[in-house]
DNA sequence: AAAAGCTTTTAAAACGCTTGCATTTGTTTG
DNA sequence: CAAACAAATGCAAGCGTTTTAAAAGCTTTT
């Protein structure tokens, strides 16, 4: 009934060699006489033999598959990283098992476990919160893990990022230089280290340097979403801010549109700088000034780092910081 | 050295039962005496045993993994579908191997083959062109396949979509009702059936009904990208169009911004309707009128259909059409 | 208390490949 | 030309599960 699947054994028989030899030619092992290789290759072609990766994985204990845990593919920030990850994965002959986690700690643990059960050779984790339970799973397994665009304050697990402190500091400085005194800081949950520790620190540093008092009423904690941005505009306005540094592009464009719909002239009456320099910054009107960071590359470098770890190569530096910059577009004077 | 991996065998020994029994309790097979089940479960817990999915896959010939071929995760249209796919996959205990194809026929074939080598239980394919080589691979394998948001003119392979002909016809009609005589049709390559056969047909039908002559100079073939949209504005304008139906949201927002930057008043001087009702339609200013289609659901339903096929359930209808609508927002009068 | 019929459990054969070790074949060398 | 070494191949033991057929235990029935 079923299309009889043909195995390495069939090839071996037809080519009158051993399975070992067939395996060698399939894997490009050089210890095969060219004539033999040719003969085997012909049979493989004739029978249309396709090696079974599952059997391969079981025998070799390598699946050439890596797990990618992503909060939400639909968010351009993460999908940009994912694209970088996938491209270099492909380059190194790995496949990606993609799993959405919704930044939900429980799901993250769950998903991580099924990935490990599937014997992935490594995992790339995106998500702003390394909860204790996740960290526990990380350390429990011998599988290499790297964080992409996420930060581990303990610096225990490998990661690739930009320097969030400095980046936000510089963005805030830009706004200060433009004579803003009341600068809002709006971002995701402050319980996420990237916000509560890194970005906030940069924001405060810039203020301190300019001798501007830090005002907790100017920091806004919300979701990374367009709607949240639109919704928070009123509060930002009410707080008397004349500018804002924002931690996410979707959030920023929401705020921008919220202000615009409220007939606020941007950048004259209100300035803003966002954080991720995704496609969205070019799509909005005015275009958004932003911290620039190489999203694709963060993913790509993270995956590259992971390949090294999977290969048990010596790693000189576990936590890689990629360069960032600031582009001023239409939302700053 | 290596953390000694513990296997089903270890559990069997510790619980003094056979591997078969352990396997049964792990798989929830009812033929196990409650007392035995409990004993085994305790040992599993104590040893922290995790079944090896690869071995499982080899023995059972099921990997509970499906392959997803996507042109580009970074495109909101596709990532929305992907999100739907992943969610129901998770619901049915499947994992997703995600592979970017760049709509490139060669890559598609390549990727499909590695997915099949990995013994995925099914495949979801997104991409607007079912080339002959892809079709050949499809039919060659016994693995179930369904198209999501992509169309197979031959209707050989299962798919879930909306009725593109009618949808575009209706969108065009809307523009005609608003007294536009010169309506541009801008979309991706016409060699893709979705454009060249379906959408174009709907466009022409609407024109014919309104007794407006079809003018090939008003159809624009380009890429699905923001840049392409911006770039094509000049040509659309030069052609004298007063409105446009557009096949992709990124493309549409590009065109919209292109027009806006050219000081054209939208919707008064130029109207447009886009096709996918993604997040972008709410993000643009003015917000874009659009054909509404349930992107998430298309993915979800496609995956659901696939689960049925993998389960060898009887399928009543291979090609599912989901309902669409039209929302008029700010880019139409 | 033996026969019959269930319910549980076990033994062991797959599943399709990789890989360490042994063997065979081929090539140099002294 | 035998010895020594290198290259090419083969053997067979895994890899960690599932699954089928058979065996073992229990209950009922008679």
TrEMBL record, chains A, B:
Indicate the segments forming the HTH lacI-type domain, all copies.
Answer: 6-60
Keyword annotations for this protein, in alphabetical order, are: Activator, DNA-binding, Repressor, Transcription, Transcription regulation
Q: Which InterPro entries match?
A: CcpA, HTH_LacI, LacI/GalR-like_sensor, Lambda_DNA-bd_dom_sf, Peripla_BP_I
PROSITE patterns hit by this protein:
HTH_LACI_1, HTH_LACI_2
| Superkingdom, taxonomy of origin | Bacteria
Q: Which CDD domains match?
A: HTH_LacI, PBP1_CcpA
Sum up the protein's function in the record's words. Answer: Global transcriptional regulator of carbon catabolite repression (CCR) and carbon catabolite activation (CCA), which ensures optimal energy usage under diverse conditions.
Its protein name is Catabolite control protein A
The gene for this chain is: ccpA
């Amino acid at each position: 009934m079923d299309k009889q699947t043909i195995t390495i054994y069939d090839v071996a028989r037809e080519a009158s060699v051993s399975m070992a030899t067939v395996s060698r030619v399939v894997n490009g092992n050089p210890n095969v006489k060219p004539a033999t290789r040719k003969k085997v290759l012909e049979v493989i072609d004739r029978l249309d033999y396709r090696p079974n990766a599952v059997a391969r994985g079981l025998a070799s204990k390598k699946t050439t598959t890596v797990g990618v845990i992503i909060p939400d593919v639909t968010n351009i920030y993460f999908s940009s990283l994912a694209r970088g990850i996938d491209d270099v994965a492909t380059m190194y002959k790995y496949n990606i098992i993609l799993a959405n986690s919704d930044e939900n700690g429980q799901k993250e643990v769950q998903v991580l476990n099924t990935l490990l059960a599937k014997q992935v050779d490594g995992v790339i984790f995106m998500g702003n919160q390394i909860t204790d339970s996740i960290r526990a799973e990380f350390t429990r397994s011998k599988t290499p893990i790297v964080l992409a665009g996420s930060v581990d304050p303990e610096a225990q697990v490998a990661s690739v990022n930009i320097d969030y402190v400095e980046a936000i500091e510089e963005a805030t400085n830009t706004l200060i230089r433009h004579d803003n005194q009341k600068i809002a800081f709006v971002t995701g949950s402050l319980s996420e280290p990237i916000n509560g520790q890194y970005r906030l620190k940069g924001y405060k540093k810039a203020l301190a340097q300019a001798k501007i008092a830090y005002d907790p009423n100017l920091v806004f904690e919300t979701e990374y979403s367009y709607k949240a941005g639109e919704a928070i505009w009123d509060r930002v306005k009410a707080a008397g801010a004349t500018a804002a540094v924002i931690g996410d592009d979707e959030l920023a464009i929401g705020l921008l549109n919220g202000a615009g719909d409220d007939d606020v002239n941007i950048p004259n009456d209100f300035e803003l700088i966002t954080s991720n320099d995704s496609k969205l910054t070019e799509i909005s009107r005015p275009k958004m000034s932003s911290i620039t960071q190489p999203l694709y590359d963060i993913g790509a470098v993270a995956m590259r780092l992971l390949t090294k770890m999977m290969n048990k190569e010596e790693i000189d530096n576990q936590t890689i910081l990629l360069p960032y910059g600031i582009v001023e577009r239409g939302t700053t004077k």
